[in-house]
Structures are given as C-alpha cells and as structure tokens.
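testing teh design pipeline on a random one, pls ignore if ur not involved
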C-alpha cells in the first residue's frame, strides 16, 4: 500500500511575501508559453521561450541575493530547493567568464556537433561583421562575457 502524503510543506522564510507575486507572474507566463501552439516551429524553437523564462526567473533570484542583497540566505536556499531558480545556472554565473550565460546546455560540449562550446558563447568581435548568430538550444543571440 502506498504512503499517503500529508501536506507537511515547510513554511516559506521571512520575505517570501515580497517576491511571491513576481514568481507567480513568472509561473503564469510559463504556463501561457507551454500552452501556446507551436505548429510551424522547429522542435528546438518551441522550447526557446521556456529556456528564456527559466533564465529570467533565475536571474531575478540571483540579482535579489547577490547584487541587491534584498533577500536572506534562508529565502534564497528555499527558492533553490523548491525549483524557483536553476541552481546549476546560478553556480556558473558566479564563475568568471560565465556572468552572462544563457543556459547550461550552451557550455556542454556533448550537445554540439564538434565537441566545443555553443556558437552563442563566441564573442561577437570574433565573428564576421553583420552576422546574426542564434543558439540552436535556447535561441540566445550571444552570451559571451566579453560582449
């Protein structure tokens, strides 16, 4: 017989009331993006808005904690634990050279054809003039830190 789960969710830390409306707005926008039709788009293109919203939501939490220092450590940990922010992406943002990283897939060499980083990680100064580059994985137009 399976266990019956009771609602023992931990109460959010102090300050949750301040950021909850914004996170609810992100959740609503994510639901809208998931439900919109994707006929005529490539398989990867249908996922781009989801990656972009995940980036925006994670950047919001990151900025609140690291740059503006507007939320406490327990609230930050709560957001990471319950999936309001991408912990792996935030861990990369703290490292030099990855401050503007769009998604973790762009730095995984196994996801590219030639075993290198994604095209959006190349600085725009090293590309041809007027060439528009767009990532296949997330639709990013360039997330190199030197741009």
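output:
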């Amino acid at each position: 017989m399976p266990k019956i789960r009771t609602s023992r969710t931990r109460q959010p830390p102090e300050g949750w009331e301040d950021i909850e409306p914004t996170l609810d707005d992100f959740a609503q926008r994510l639901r809208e993006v998931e439900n919109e039709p994707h006929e005529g788009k490539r398989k990867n293109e249908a996922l781009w808005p989801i990656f972009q919203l995940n980036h925006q939501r994670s950047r919001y939490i990151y900025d609140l904690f690291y740059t503006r220092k507007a939320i406490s450590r327990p609230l930050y940990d709560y957001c990471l634990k319950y999936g309001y922010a991408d912990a792996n992406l935030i861990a990369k943002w703290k490292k030099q050279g990855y401050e503007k990283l769009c998604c973790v897939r762009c730095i995984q060499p196994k996801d590219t054809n030639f075993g290198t980083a994604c095209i959006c990680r190349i600085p725009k100064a090293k590309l041809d003039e007027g060439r528009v580059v767009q990532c296949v994985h997330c639709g990013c137009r360039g997330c190199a830190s030197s741009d």
